[in-house]
Amino acid sequence: MSAPEPQRRVGQTILEWDHVTFGYGRTPVLRDVTLQLTSGELLAVVGPNGSGKTTLVKLGLGLLHPTSGSVRLFGQPVERFRDWGRVGYVPQRAGADSPLPLSVLEVVRSGLAGHLGLVRRPTAADRQRIEHVLEVMGIAELRTAPVSQLSGGQQQRALIARALVTAPQLLVLDEPTTGVDAAARAALRQSLEHLIRVEGVGVISISHDPEGFADLADRVVEVRAGRVVARDRADVEVRRP
Amino acid sequence: MTPLSYDFMQRAFVACVLVCAAAPLVGAFVVQRRQSLIGDGIGHVAFAGVGLAFLVGVSPLLGALALTLVAVVALQRLSRAGLGGDVALALVFYGGISLGYLLSSRSDAGVGAVLGFLFGSALDLTWGEVGVIALLAGIVVAIVALLYLPLVAIAFDEAAARVSGVPTSGLTLALTAVVGLVVVGGMYALGLLLVAAMMVVPVAAAAQVARSYRQTLLLASAIGALSAVVGLLLAFYADTTPGASIVVVAIGCYGVNAVLRAVPRRAIRTATLESRQ
Fold first, then answer.
1. Partner B contacted by A146 (CB < 8 A)
2. Residue A40 lies in a domain
3. Residue A63: its chain B contacts at CB < 8 A?
4. Quick check: A106 and B214 CB within 8 A?
5. Closest among A158, A198, A168, A155 to A61, alpha carbons compared
6. Segment B163-193, tens digit of pLDDT
């Protein structure tokens, strides 16, 4: 069953890669990439492992710097961007093998650290926002459970809740369906639909798995051999097993 | 006569409880960041500082603190330059202990005086030294309490913390500096080699039974303090070395907690099997 067509706020360019080239040493990873994400859209980035998907996103978030070309985030060069509360990032399987127990609530609350600065404490409004994202992600009842003891899908929802706690306008998901079973994937899909449709969050989902969230996406691009090419969404769905 | 009837035991109890309760508060962050051996490494560099202090005739505390802070900055630079791997760290750490031995061999006090700092001498502390330990422990606790949330953020997921605007480089530097303070604060009581154990072992013990990070921190601090008390009692009554006794007790706590954690699981498995039959 296809997802209902959401009413999205489309228009503003959130993230823009302009003729970006990047390599590790002399090994080229991405070549002359030009790509945009606008508000209220879901962009799926697909491609095989090692194709440069994560590098593309890290360049977009300023975690890596392009060899040539430029990246703009909310209209500003990413290296000068400071309003990080507008961005939520969920790295691949982060914290899944945490050596110490962190409860879901602690993980979600840690997402406020950048917004609060070094010494400020969460306010009542911050606590309300934490409760809201726990509800939206369907993990309110798991708040005291250690994250490392949750299933893959529950962990992923806790990490997305952490990224959402500052009410970001851009959410970046790196391999959100890795290690997530079909039922949890469906729950995750429902949460994402809510975020995009109701809360108007722009989402980039990168995945080596064509089954990821490509069928939910407004646009699908494939990274292959360092190049980014637009893909037909139907073509990605056809390849699903 | 009870142990607390003696002045030297009173000083040992105060100093060791402070060090062993404060060390795991920092240790929880380094364990979570998978840098459990960083305290040990910084201890090696602090040893060079003690050797230097003996050579130039200043307080060992001053020498250890100075070289520890140099090491903290050097580690940060190495990490930024992509040289933070095992070999680069080994060069810094083994360089530290060799330098300490070398410098102390050229000092008037000789090697013997410096070697005492490796394993500490809790029973020989002065009230002045206890005061310095209390000051350093207070600074450590205050920094951890003040920066708790951003430290949790970088310990759990540094990349996401960086994207959310947390100043990860500055916090990492601050955390390493606090590790240095613990090492220097603990060198008189537990020694430069054993104080690092109290950053890690109580945390590992607490993590066996805790269900959250805050619980882990508080429980680890309590286990550290308990280990200090029991270890010193052991040293008093059984005439063992205090620092080593404290660490052995902490390892014992780890063993007890590991058993406590395993028993309910086994009981649940057995009950499940019985109910199926």
1. yes
2. yes
3. 159, 162-163
4. yes
5. A168
6. 999 999 899 999 989 999 999 999 999 999 8
Is the pLDDT confidence value at B107 over 50?
yes
Contact B28, B148 (CB under 8 A): no
Task: Determine the structural domain holding residue A20 and report its residue range.
Answer: 13-238
Question: Alpha-carbon distance A142 to A90, whole Å?
Answer: 19
- CB contact under 8 Å between B150 and A113, yes or no, is yes
Q: Please tell me if residue B167 touches chain A, with a CB cutoff of 8 Å.
A: yes
Q: What is the CA radius of gyration of chain A?
A: 17
Domain-embedded: residue A8: no
**Residue B108: pLDDT band with limits 50, 70, 90:** confident
Q: Is A2 helix (H, G, I), strand (E, B) or coil?
A: coil
> Which residues from B are below 8 Å from A158, CB to CB?
none
What percentage of chain B carries pLDDT values higher than 90? 65
- State the nearest Cα–Cα gap between A61 and chain B, in angstroms: 7
From A98, A109, A118, residue closest to B32, measured CB to CB: A98
Assess if residue A145 is contained within a domain: yes
| CATH (domain of A190) | 3.40.50.300
Domains, chain B, ranges and CATH?
A: 3-196 (1.10.3470.10)
Chain-chain contact of A100 with B162 (C-beta, under 8 angstroms): no
Q: How far apart are CA A192 and CA A201, in angstroms?
A: 9
The number of domains in chain A is 1
**B150 touching A (Cβ < 8 Å):** yes
3-class DSSP state for residue B263?
A: helix
Predicted complex: ipTM over 0.90? no
Cβ of A101 within 8 Å of Cβ of B212? The answer is yes
Residue A5 resides in a domain: no
Q: For B152, which residue in chain A has the nearest alpha carbon?
A: A110
Here the tokens at position A36 are 């945009």
pLDDT value at A220 more than 60: yes
